[in-house]
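pasting for the record
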Amino acid sequence: MAVKRRRTDRPAQRRRTRKAIVDAAMGLLARRGTPSVADVALFMVVQTAVVLAAVRFGLLTMLVAQFVSVLLTLLPIAVDSAVPYASSSRLIVLTVIALAAYGWHTALAGRPMFGGLLRGVEPARHA
């Protein structure tokens, strides 16, 4: 005996989806106020850059960028060593520098990091 499947009402489902998206957007606007043209333009530029970076460089790049962004924006960076969070600040800065150095080393794929300038070796030429 064949099981009859009910056909879903596609137009009604689309309307519900659109309504949910509009309701979510209106809720954000009502909570934060109406964004200015500059806010919308900046948002579009940042999101376009994020998408282009994700497509060009991959997910790992985006994860590292987000991690560094969170480190540098949410946690305080102190120059004064007398403050209680100075050691945390140093750890944050060292972490970001270590990630940058590792990314640089990995991107060169075994070639010298300074192009052989420190050892007097000329950089390899591409054929």
